[in-house]
Specification:
The protein is mostly helical. Helix content is 83%, strand content 1%. Strand 1 (47-48) and strand 2 (57-58) form a beta hairpin. The two termini are 71 Å apart.
Length: 283
């Protein structure tokens, strides 16, 4: 009973002032007319107004982008399996984002020509949110693949470097063993020569001076012959040492090149992430 009386009193109060109702309806009509006029004036003709930070997009370009299949169909989950595909997906995702921004502006302007402006704007906002969500899924998969590819390449490079280091270590160990063996042989040869010299000295005791001179000259000729026989070995050792120096320098240059390439890839990845709005990946 009380509710019925309150409703009746409310309706009587609402229609009590006919002039007030007329003023409200006139004001609403003026607002809708002003919104329609503003939308018509601002409506794009050949080029769509860009969002902040975007280059202008022509109507034909917008229609061409919107005519493509949805990005989730072009790049379904699990389809990004190479760097080329990942880069292409990110580029197309950026294009779709630009087109989506322009379409949102166009939809907003169209809403001001309708009676239920707020509902129309909410629908346009929801369509934009859903489209952005689908674009985001492709961007996440593409960025994830690129990060994993970088990790795999880095691991492969490290594995190759470890293998090379092990081979170098084994070669150096073998060279060290060879040097020790050569040194021991030289000590033995030196001891043998000293014994031979001592034997000659002992044998030359009491011999004439000219005999000792001839003996000395013979020893000198023998030493010269031995030195000449060892010359190829010394040349080979020098060539091997020079080759090791060249290999070390080549390895250093390769490491620097790979480091520079990795830095360049990180810079390009950060640039792409900044352009697409994707937060940088955690290192």
């Amino acid at each position: 009973m009380n509710h019925t009386k309150m409703g009746k009193n409310y309706m009587q109060g609402f229609f009590a002032d006919a002039n007030g109702v007329s003023r409200f309806l006139c004001g609403l009509a003026l607002m809708l007319g002003a919104g329609w006029s503003s939308a018509q004036t601002a409506a794009p003709t050949d080029r769509q107004a860009p969002a902040a930070g975007q280059a202008p997009m022509s109507r034909s370009a917008l229609e061409a982008l919107e005519a493509r299949a949805p990005i989730a169909e072009r790049y379904p989950a699990g389809s990004i399996k190479s760097r080329e595909v990942a880069e292409k997906a990110l580029a197309e995702a950026a294009q779709d984002r630009d087109a989506l921004g322009v379409r949102y502006i166009v939809d907003q302007r169209a809403c001001y020509q309708k009676f239920l402006v707020t509902s129309c704007l909410e629908d346009a906002k929801e369509r934009k949110r859903m489209a952005e969500s689908r674009i985001k899924q492709v961007e996440i998969e593409a960025n994830t693949y690129q990060r994993q590819a970088n990790v795999d390449e880095r691991d492969e490079a490290l594995a190759e470097q470890r293998k090379k280091d092990q081979e170098d270590s084994a070669r150096r160990l073998q060279e060290q063993k060879q040097k020790e063996a050569d040194s021991a042989r030289k000590v033995q040869d030196s001891d043998a020569k000293r014994q031979q010299v001592q034997q000659r000295i002992d044998q030359s005791q009491g011999q004439p001076a000219d005999y000792r001179i001839r003996e000395h000259e013979a020893r000198m000729r023998q030493q010269q012959a031995e030195e000449a026989a060892r010359a190829p070995e010394r040349a080979a050792n020098a060539a091997a040492r020079e080759q090791r120096i060249k290999e070390a320098e080549a390895h250093r240059l390769e490491v620097e090149r790979k480091k520079a390439e990795n830095e360049r890839e990180r810079a390009e990845r950060k640039k792409r992430e900044a352009q697409s709005g994707t937060p940088p990946a955690a290192k």
